[in-house]
UniProtKB/TrEMBL annotation:
Positions of the Ketoreductase domain: 10-194
The protein's name: SDR family oxidoreductase
Coiled coil region boundaries: none
Organism of origin: Cellvibrio fontiphilus
CDD domains in alphabetical order: TER_DECR_SDR_a (cd05369)
Keyword list, A-Z: NADP, Oxidoreductase
Pfam families reported for this sequence: adh_short_C2 (PF13561)
Transmembrane segments: none
Similarity annotation: Belongs to the short-chain dehydrogenases/reductases (SDR) family.
Length: 272
């Protein structure tokens, strides 16, 4: 593919941008010439990512260590970046926590920790960025998950949290649309070589079953998600807001498709 996006003169913030999918997004915006800042808890991961962003060609690269559960730390760090750079053109919010546990196998604090990181953390980020958004023109992308729409055993905390994240997306689309701020969610499918998949597909058998359940018959890559972010943040997506977009090889359709595939087998065998 020789089509490329130019994000030079754009200021991009990726919250939770120091590993996996979100780091891939940050590095892709860096390759497109943007100024890119990342936030996560680990100062080592932040430093390492900032070095990588520079190597990718970012016009500038920044970062600070903070927990999205700490509203003041998030606000102070974002205020400082905006004071240096001016307005934010693109914000990707994707900090998240996950562990597999049945409802009766997790404490209220276990449930709370995921709600506080994914859902409350998203709210904190939205409040902290609002004063600094370019209006009109800013694009916000919340990183959701299939659990927002598909109930999954062992994921009651994540299902509840990510459903809430998508409702934040849809509500702020109403509240901020008149100012020319677009906000969308991306629902990544199973993305290879990520912490999320390490936790949710810990054995080769589960991994193979996951691959088989994706209509496109492969796991996604971090590039698949990053490219969707480039598009959503670009002027090509200027009429898209409030959308919750699966980038998942058709995974969200997988359950029904699997039933259909079984039926199709049966019908093929039937003489009439
Ligand atoms: P990951 O590598 O663990 O990335 C999570 C990022 O968030 C890291 O940079 C982490 O850095 C940061 N983070 C975690 N807790 C934080 C907190 N309390 N405050 C601030 N930063 C925090 O995970 P991933 O698998 O790539 O997932 C990334 C996103 O995609 C998540 O939103 C996830 O729900 C979503 N997703 C993933 C998949 C998948 O297949 N992996 C599928 C669907 C959706 P620190 O540890 O330094 O804080
Ligand atoms: N099963 C059941 N409960 C679990 C658990 C598991 N596998 N892992 C953690 N918990 C519980 C803990 O026991 C604790 O509850 P308690 O105080 O009642 O004992 C609660 O969750 C919080 O754990 P803690 O380790 O103190 O939280 P933290 O804030 O340091 O970390 C997590 C948050 C648990 C989400 C941690 O896994 C994390 O930091 N994840 C980030 C990376 C990630 O999940 N990436 C994938 C994204 S899709």
């Amino acid at each position: 593919m020789n089509f490329s996006f130019d994000f030079s003169n754009k200021n991009v913030l990726v919250v939770g941008g120091t590993s996996g999918i979100n780091r891939g997004i940050a590095e892709t915006f860096a390759k497109a010439g943007a100024k890119v800042a990342v936030v996560s808890r680990s100062p080592e991961k932040v430093d390492d990512t900032v070095q990588s962003l520079k190597a990718c060609g970012a016009a500038d690269a920044r970062g600070f260590a903070a927990d999205v559960r700490e509203v003041e730390a998030i606000k102070t760090g974002i205020d400082a970046i905006a004071a240096d750079w001016g307005k934010l053109d693109v914000v990707v919010s994707g900090a998240a926590g996950n562990f597999p546990a049945l409802a009766m196998g997790m404490s209220p604090n276990g449930f709370r920790s995921v709600i506080e990181i994914d859902l409350l953390g998203t709210f904190h980020v939205m409040q902290a960025i609002y004063p600094h958004l370019k209006k009109p023109g800013a694009s916000i992308i919340n990183i959701s998950a299939p659990q927002a729409e598909l109930p999954m055993a062992g994921q009651s905390h994540v299902c509840a949290a990510k459903a809430g994240v998508d409702m934040i997306t849809r509500t702020l689309c109403l509240e901020w649309g008149a100012e020319g701020v677009r906000i969308n969610s991306i629902i990544p499918g199973p993305i290879d070589n990520t912490e999320g998949m390490k936790r949710l597909a810990p054995t080769e058998k589960i991994r193979a079953a996951v691959v088989k359940s994706v209509p496109l018959q492969r796991m996604g890559s971090t590039d698949d998600i990053a490219h969707a972010c480039l598009f959503l943040a670009s002027d090509f997506a200027s009429y898209i807001s409030g959308a919750v977009i699966p980038v998942d090889g058709g995974w969200a359709q997988g359950g029904a498709a699997m039933v259909g595939a079984g039926l199709a087998e049966l019908l093929k065998k039937s003489p009439d």
